[in-house]
Amino acid sequence: MSRRRLGRLVHGALLGLVALYSVFPIYFITVQSLKTAEEDVFGSPLYVLRPTFENYTELFRGAEARVRGFVIVPRVPFLIWLANSALVLGLAVALTLAAAVAAGYALGRLRPPGWRWWRRALFATYVVPHTILFIPLYQVILALGLDDSHGALVLVYSTMALPFCVWLLSAYYHHLPREIEDSAVVEGASRATAFLRVVLPMSRNVLIAAGLFTVGTVGNDFMLASIFLLTPEKQTVAAGLGVMDVSLEELLAVAGVNLAAVPVALACAVLARRYVEGVTAAMLEGA
Amino acid sequence: MPASMRPGRRREVLVAHALLAPALLLVLGVLAYPVAWEAWISLTSFAARAERPAFVGLANYRAMLADPFFWRALATTVVYFAATTAAKLALGLAMALLLARPARGRALVFLAVFLPWAYPGGVTVVAWYWMLNPPLITSYSVPVGNLKHAVDGLLGGGAYAFASVMLFNIWRGASFTAVFLLAGLNAIPTELFEYARLEERSAWRRFRHVTVPLLRPFLALAVFLSFTGAFADLANVWMLTGGRIVFPVIGTYAYWLGVRSGDLAAAAAWSLSLVPLLALALVVLFRWFDPPREEPA
Amino acid sequence: MAQVLMKDLNKKYDEVHAVKDVNLHIRDKEFIVLVGPSGCGKSTTLRMVAGLEEITSGEIVIGDRVVNDLPPKDRDIAMVFQNYALYPHMTVYDNMAFGLKMRKFPRAEIEKRVREAAEILGIQDLLKRKPRQLSGGQRQRVAVGRAIVRHPQVFLFDEPLSNLDAKLRVQMRVELKRLHDRLETTAIYVTHDQVEAMTLGDRVVVMKDGWVQQVGEPLELYSRPANRFVAGFIGSPAMNFVDVAIAESNGALWAETPGLRIRVPGEQSERLRRYAGQRVTLGVRPEDLRVATTADPPEYAFDSVVEVVEPLGAEMLLDVRAGAHGMVVRVDPSVRVKVHEKVRLALDPARLHFFDLATEAAI
After folding, report:
1. Looking at chain B from residue 183 to 242, which residues have their Cβ under 8 Å from any Cβ of chain A?
2. Are B212 and B223 contacting, i.e. CB atoms less than 8 angstroms apart?
3. What is the pLDDT of residue C284?
4. Which residues lie below 8 Å from residue B28, measured CB to CB, with a gap of 6+?
5. How far B179 CA lies from chain C's nearest CA (Å)?
6. Is the pLDDT of residue B1 over 50?
7. What's the rounded Cα separation, in Å, for the pair C13 and C219?
8. Which chain C residue shows the shortest CA-CA distance from A184?
9. pLDDT tens digits for B131-171?
10. How far is it, in rounded angstroms, from Cα C323 to Cα A69?
11. Distance of alpha carbon A279 from alpha carbon B183, whole angstroms
């Protein structure tokens, strides 16, 4: 076998290995969620012989509690949680991106004196460990009467990914050639219109990159959500599962989180390539 | 603002400040009070069940620094950060390099690599928890249990759990790093690589002397984000397992101090002890991903 | 009347004085070219006319209005940029229509103008495409089309051909000239390429270090350069410069340097007399030198050694050395010379240039 072909085979094999390694835990947990209680105990962890969706349908079930084995499983308002999650995540991403685009444009294109330091200062907020910050945060929330509100959570979420997004966007706007905006201005657009009609549409890939980063960072949170949102009507999936009397041992919980993840995963699958393009575009050094 | 600034520029600067304001307000508004609170608290004797807290200056810090447990925890923390970051970088870089070269089905592999980080952390943590610490009796519980025993016996109690968290963090973080570094590789013009192939036959030397320096800004940024990511994952695991998995790591111990035993002042001191470390890391890394450059006239 | 007037125009960036006291009167329908090396201030001047740079001092008049304080969109100008600056997310049609949409033109009028411009430029079939699907030349046409549809008073071109390959550049040059003849609109064109300047401009403005060096018709700049810089910048290959000493002998003036002794022709003697005993710079273009024949008077001939022969097909360039001085000579391709050969060269006394050594001004 020629060296080239061998090299290609090895390359292919490695790629396969990487894919397997990346997907395995997700595959694993999906398989588990499709099992009945018995098969869960006795079946192999790697595949499911008699797949069932009962864990998933359970999530949407009616009011009565069910007795399964020796454990009483309460009903969970999963749909509501799902909707809340979508709402909170969506708002957080929107808020983050809006603030990041404005700040990124200001620092990258308009460059007021000291712009480099503003950017570094914002990024430097990442050095503060968030461990017990939730305590004073919660104090403030209580004092303002904002407990159990989505708004407060959205505001806090939006600060999590903001420094990086500002960084990314400011790098992108820094490298964007001036002529495109100049051209729009000469053609009769005000600076604001030039930005909205020309620069912003061009930034699509970078915005997707920043947006996905925000989703990845914010979606990871359990702690804040479970502290800030108290009533089941308001809770997101993360909050609900974190607080509910549903322990991780339950396949129900497993199914629940998996379901919540699916739309996110799908969106990411669609946007993945643009994410890479966006990061590349932002950090690309000028010619 | 210098008076010598032209009116057009002055207006531009004002607009810039106005656009910058929302981001600054958000971050300051949300973080200023909590951080200040934490700093202040660390200087008092505040405890949840105690009477009026008194200002004790640096007493908490002194006590912390005198505590051998702190140093052990610090060492463990540093090891945790260093080991996971090194692994994430190595793995991420390897994956990025693999993906950079065209191959059939590459797009699918890319998607697969993207998933671990994109998939909400809550789910994947559950997955790993089930894989390594099956909560129910399952067919694979016994071998896993044996493994756990072996590891714990070798490295001390709780080591297996700790290792599981590290593996989880590495799995997740390497995915992010890989995608990020892939973007970096894309940003480098192919001519540079082609030229390197003409000059240097050894692939390893090419890698060391051409690829790595060109990727430096990305690597630096990835390293820093790996630190923050490692921290966040730790908190998540703790939270989800209801604090059952206790590690002698500064972050979780601070949490335990604050929430479980109510000694908030000490918790604050412990929590803030990491700031100088991270700040140092940031200063070093800034040099690589945000070098001050001359602005052309 | 779309004339453009620049009065005492200056531009300072903090420490750098980029444009210094520029005074220009550009007539209606004129195609004027600003040319010079990088950093000479030509682009900055253009951008001040466009309104993209603020004027430090001085005045700019377009038509009959002083436009100093007017924003670009109110100046009735259109601009074509070096890298076309096409909006990547819009189709060609939308790119061209953008300016008109900004000014709230009715849709029918926009359509009419865009199609008209597209036809003039030959891009009617590309209207639905996006910029990334176009070649460099096509993109450049779209950029020009975008400017045309606005029917402005003045066209501004900022090195529009620099990003094209050589062949395309020559082609587009001709097209631009034809376009100008057809549209009859005042145009200010910036380039660093003196060939473009000479072929396109009704008049050419040579700039250096922020100063205007000379303004005039191309041929005037070529045959009567005002200073050494213009002489060396216009014309390719560049003019040969030799530092000589002016000596008087028997009432006649001679320009001397080791290896070269040329008589100063009668017309120029008057002006050069006061330089007797001093040094000046002698300038002669490669095309004004030729291989000497026995008929050539010896006072306008000199010996040289051939160092490099460059056959170009329609002509031949010889790099020669006369004494310590290297020169370039343009000769007929039929000339037979070899490297290291001695060759006697003659020059045309009517085509000699002299420059003051210190001020570099033409004498």
Report:
1. 183-184, 186-187, 217-218, 224-225, 228, 231-233, 235-236, 239-241
2. no
3. 93
4. none
5. 26
6. no
7. 35
8. C99
9. 777 666 666 777 777 777 777 777 666 677 777 778 888 88
10. 110
11. 6
Phi, psi of C297 (to 5 degrees): -65, 140
Contact status of C105 with chain A (Cβ, < 8 Å) = no
* pLDDT < 50: residue spans in chain A: 62-74, 245-246, 285-287
Contact indicator for A280, A83 with CB cutoff of 8 Å? no
- pTM (predicted TM-score): 0.80
Residue B186 has pLDDT above 90, yes or no: no
DSSP letter for C90, please: S
Separation of alpha carbons C256 and C355, rounded Å: 14
Q: Judged by CB atoms within 8 Å, which residues 100-159 of B form the interface with A?
A: 101, 103-124, 126-131, 135-140
* B271 pLDDT higher than 60: yes
What tokens does B215 get? 């990727």
- Tokens linked to A274: 């643009």
pLDDT at C329: 93
Tokens describing residue C169: 């550049």
Distance from CA of B157 to the nearest CA of A (A): 23
CA geometry: angle B74, B78, B79, nearest 5 deg: 115
Distance CA A59, CA A76 (A): 6
* pLDDT value at residue C23: 93
Is residue A55 classed as helix, strand or coil in its secondary structure? helix
Chain A: closest CA distance from residue B155 (Å): 25
Looking at residue B4, what is its pLDDT? Answer: 54
In sequence order, what are the residues at sequence separation of 6 or more whose Cβ sits closer than 8 angstroms to the Cβ of residue C127? C91, C92, C93, C114, C118
Q: Which of C117, C168, C125 is nearest to C143 (CA)?
A: C117
Exposure string for C236-258, b = 16+ CB within 10 A, e = fewer: eeebbbbebebeeeeeebbbbbe
Instruction: Quickly list DSSP for B53-104.
Output: --B-TTHHHHHHHH-HHHHHHHHHHHHHHHHHHHHHHHHHHHHHHHHHS--T
Length of chain B (residues): 297
For chain C, give the number of residues.
363
* Residues C293 and C331 sit within 8 Å (Cβ to Cβ): no
List, in sequence order, every residue forming a beta bridge with C211; answer none if it has no partner.
C208
Pairing of strands C211-216, C203-208: antiparallel
Residue B262 burial by Cβ neighbours in a 10 Å radius (0-12, 13-18, 19+): middle
| Per-residue pLDDT, A287 | 26
pLDDT at B182: 85
Specify the pairing of strand C301-311 against strand C203-208. unpaired
Write the CB contacts of A196 (distance below 8 Å, at least 6 apart in sequence): none
Distance of CA B195 to the CA centre of its chain: 35
What does the pLDDT read at residue B80?
84
Structure tokens belonging to residue B77: 């923390």
Residue A286 is predicted with a pLDDT of: 36
d(CA B186, CA A279): 10
ipTM: 0.82
Nearest Cβ partner of A242 from B109, B136, B239?
A: B239
Q: How far is Cα C154 from Cα C51, in angstroms, rounded to an integer?
A: 13
Mutation to test the C interface, candidates B4, B6, B295, most C Cβ within 10 Å? B6
Beta-carbon contacts of C353 under 8 Å, excluding residues fewer than 6 positions away, are C225, C231, C239, C282, C283, C284, C362
Q: For C224-356, where are the alpha helices, taking DSSP H only?
A: 228-233, 266-272
Chain C interface includes A113 (CB < 8 A): no
Q: Is C16 on the interface with B (CB under 8 A)?
A: yes
Place C241 in a pLDDT band, splitting at 50, 70 and 90. Answer: very high
Interface of B with A in 150-189 (CB under 8 A): 171, 175-176, 179-180, 182-184, 186-187
- Min Cα distance C181 → chain B (Å) is 37
